[in-house]
Amino acid sequence: MAEIGRIILTDACVAEGAAWLAEAEPRFARAMAATGPLPLRRTPDGFGQLLNAIVSQQVSVASARAIRGRLEAAGFTEESAIRAVSEEELREHGLSRQKARYAKALAEARIDYAALRATPTQEVVATLTEVKGIGVWTAEIYAMFALGRADVFAPGDLALQEAARVLFELPERPREKPLREMARAWSPWRSVAARALWAYYHVAKDREGIA
After folding, report:
1. Please, how many CA atoms are within 13 Å of residue 18, restricted to the half-sphere of its CB?
2. How far is 157 from 102, CA to CA, in rounded Å?
3. Among candidate residues 73, 72, 52, 56, the one with its CA nearest the CA of residue 64
4. Percentage of the chain surpassing pLDDT 90?
5. Can you give the residue range of the structural domain that contains 37?
6. CA dist 167 → 21, 202, 204 (Å)
7. Residues near 33 by Cβ (< 8 Å), separated by ≥ 6?
């Protein structure tokens, strides 16, 4: 397990990481005093989780939920079922032309999801981003929440960027590359740092009306 680092399994794991961050960086201590306990946010791994990510791209939560419901009712949630139907049939159940293409590409990639559980995070990201429609952000979120990796970050996330700007009093919102570099200091608990920043984003948004 040393090759993939700590796995976040329980709220106690998150609390351990939060305590480490608060000790290492006082501004995280201040942020978490405002947010309260951080959420576990673990999700199942596998094909369904990535299909959900594709469905949810650039639509509201309600729209994504409705489309997932239609796919589930038709039995189009399993990898083999998606391989067996046409893109047109997927479009008839709510997917856009592009998302139908992405869903087919994911199903046809035949990823060994069980093997990913023991695969180093960089290789997980590389494997997933080979699939059309799966970007770095989606792959990092999958590693963080579906695989429970404790030391992965998603610096392309706009809410993380804005929360970092406010918490660390930066002159402007950091872009992906500088935020990735900044997050190195939060290893080996970068996933918990992300949870803290997401939680703090909502606090700051309420206080300051940030976008």
Report:
1. 21
2. 21
3. 56
4. 92
5. 11-42+151-208
6. 14, 12, 9
7. none
Region 168-192 average pLDDT: 97
Report the pLDDT value the prediction gives residue 58, as an integer from 0 to 100. Answer: 86
As a three-state string, the secondary structure of 133-200 is: CCCHHHHHHHHHHHCCECCCCCCCCHHHHHHHHHHCCCCCCCCHHHHHHHHHHHCCCHHHHHHHHHHH
| Beta carbons within 8 Å of 193's beta carbon, 6+ residues apart | 17, 21, 28, 153, 183, 186
Q: How many independent structural domains does the chain possess?
A: 2
Tell me the CA distances in angstroms from 85 to 82, 150, 152, one per residue in order: 6, 37, 35
In a domain, 1, yes or no: no
Q: Using the 8-state DSSP alphabet, how is residue 85 labeled? A: S
46 and 113 Cβ atoms separated by less than 8 Å: yes
**Which CATH number does the domain housing residue 190 bear?**
1.10.1670.40
Q: What is the chain's mean pLDDT, rounded?
A: 94
pLDDT tens-digit series, residues 3-43: 789 999 999 999 999 999 999 999 999 999 999 999 999 99
User: Hey, what are 60's tokens?
Assistant: 């509201």
pLDDT level of residue 206 (50, 70, 90 thresholds): confident
User: Looking at 51-106, which runs of residues are DSSP E strands?
Assistant: none
Residue with tokens 């090759």: 3
pLDDT reported for residue 210: 53
Angle at 136 between CA 135 and CA 140, to 5 degrees: 125
What is each CA distance from 165 to 80, 175, 202, in whole angstroms? 44, 10, 13
